[in-house]
Structure formats: structure tokens, C-alpha cells
Inverse folding.
């Protein structure tokens, strides 16, 4: 395990919690597709996209800090696949039904699988 400074541990904790917050946002967005009382789905989806930027921009620093943790770094790099799926999805702005199906059946599951893999490898740094 890589030796880290207190600031590095704080950054990893923030990152870990951000991944959980994004999952909670996805849960809300997916529920909003069928529950009309949940009216903030579109805004929260935009917040998720903004959070994706923060996740991605944090990777460069985390890669430098955790460079000895090759498996973890490789797992973080797989986030690019989540972004590419989003980039390739043109229906996100055209058809509401297609957008909802994409988020529910492709984007959210891809994000969740990636998140769980990364968090399992970050766990030793979280329990410090």
C-alpha cells in the first residue's frame, strides 16, 4: 500500500464520497422516470454530468499519488468507458423515452459497475 499524506487521504475520501453521491443522483433520476412527484430529475442528471468532470479531472492527481497501485490506476482509467458511452449516445438530447432507457439500462449500470470496482480497491485507504 502506498504511503500517503493527510491531504492525499482527504482527497481520496472526498473522491470516494463523490462516487457515492453520483450513485444517489442516478437512483433519484431513474426513480423520477416513473414517479412524477420527483421533479428534479433533469437538474440532477445535469449535476451528475458536472460531477463526471470532477471525477475525471481528479484522476490525474490520483494516478500520480497512487502510481504504485497499478490495478487501481487501471480501474480508474476505465471511467473513460463510461464517458465514451455518454459521448456516443445522441438520443440523450432527442427522445425522452430513448434517453430514459439509455440512462436506466446502460449509463447507470456501467457507472455502478465501475464505481464498485474502484471503491473496493480504494477501501484500504478509506479505513485508515
Amino acid at each position: 500500500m502506498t504511503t500517503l499524506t493527510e491531504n492525499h487521504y482527504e482527497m481520496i475520501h472526498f473522491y470516494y464520497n463523490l462516487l457515492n453521491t453520483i450513485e444517489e443522483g442516478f437512483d433519484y433520476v431513474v426513480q423520477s422516470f416513473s414517479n412524477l412527484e420527483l421533479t428534479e430529475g433533469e437538474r440532477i442528471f445535469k449535476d451528475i454530468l458536472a460531477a463526471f468532470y470532477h471525477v475525471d479531472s481528479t484522476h490525474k492527481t490520483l494516478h500520480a499519488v497512487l502510481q504504485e497501485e497499478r490495478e487501481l490506476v487501471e480501474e480508474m482509467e476505465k471511467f473513460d468507458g463510461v464517458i465514451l458511452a455518454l459521448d456516443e449516445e445522441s438520443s440523450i438530447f432527442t427522445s425522452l423515452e430513448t434517453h430514459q432507457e439509455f440512462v436506466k439500462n446502460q449509463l447507470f449500470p456501467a457507472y455502478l459497475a465501475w464505481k464498485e470496482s474502484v471503491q473496493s480497491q480504494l477501501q484500504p485507504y478509506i479505513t485508515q
User: Anything to note?
Assistant: The longest helix spans residues 96-126. The mean pLDDT is 90. The CA atoms of residues 59 and 77 lie 8 Å apart. The two ends are 11 Å apart (CA to CA).
